[in-house]
Specification:
Strand order of the largest sheet: 1-2-3-4-5-6-7-8-9-10
Helix content: 10-25%
Number of domains: 1
Radius of gyration: 20 Å
CATH superfamily: Calycin beta-barrel core domain
Largest sheet: 10 strands, antiparallel, barrel
Distance between the termini: 64 Å
CATH topology: Lipocalin
Number of strands: 10
Order of helices and strands: HEEEEEEEEEE
Strand content: over 45%
CATH architecture: Beta Barrel
Structural class: mainly beta
Length: about 160
């Protein structure tokens, strides 16, 4: 009887772990897991309007472009590629105006947020995106600069 009870308990424990892991998703996400980011997003602060447009997941990538306009002129722009690398990990490569292209590796993710990082980059070392309960998007860049931690946040709203 004890052996049967032990097997039943083991079976229940395995089932519970399997259900929790199934709810969390796979250990390594697929590009399709970031599909919530697809669309046009806009943020406006201090007379600067930032527009970011993400294409839907396809072919193992999501592509985006961003533009910052102030006083009727484009002040900054950026191209972004969210992709699966050769080892099966997820990376974000950013190519901002006037700067070298930099690749960041996925550090953490949930079904509606992620953070990528590159500790060797000057600034930022981390980039994050999080879909908010109201459907808006919070994005941020952060890292060390001049010996101090700096974080810049962007509050985006989805555009039609």
């Amino acid at each position: 009887m004890r052996a049967l009870s032990a097997w039943l308990l083991l079976g229940l424990a395995v089932t519970a772990v399997w259900r929790v892991r199934a709810a969390e998703g796979p250990a390594t996400p697929r590009i399709e897991d970031f599909g919530w980011l697809a669309g046009r997003w806009e943020s406006e602060r201090n007379g600067r309007r930032v527009s970011e447009q993400w294409m839907e997941p396809a072919g193992g990538t999501m592509l985006a472009m961003s533009r910052t306009v102030q006083d009727g002129r484009t002040r900054e722009w950026e191209f972004l590629v969210l992709a699966v690398d050769a080892e099966g990990g997820v990376t974000l490569t950013a190519a901002p105006s006037g700067q070298a292209r930099t690749t960041f590796k996925l550090a953490t993710w949930t079904r509606d947020s992620f953070v990528v990082e590159n500790p060797t980059h000057d600034f930022p070392q981390r980039i994050g995106y999080a879909l908010q309960p109201d459907g808006s998007l919070r994005a941020w860049i952060e890292g060390e600069r001049g010996g101090k931690t700096r974080r810049i946040e962007f509050a985006y709203r989805r555009m039609p």
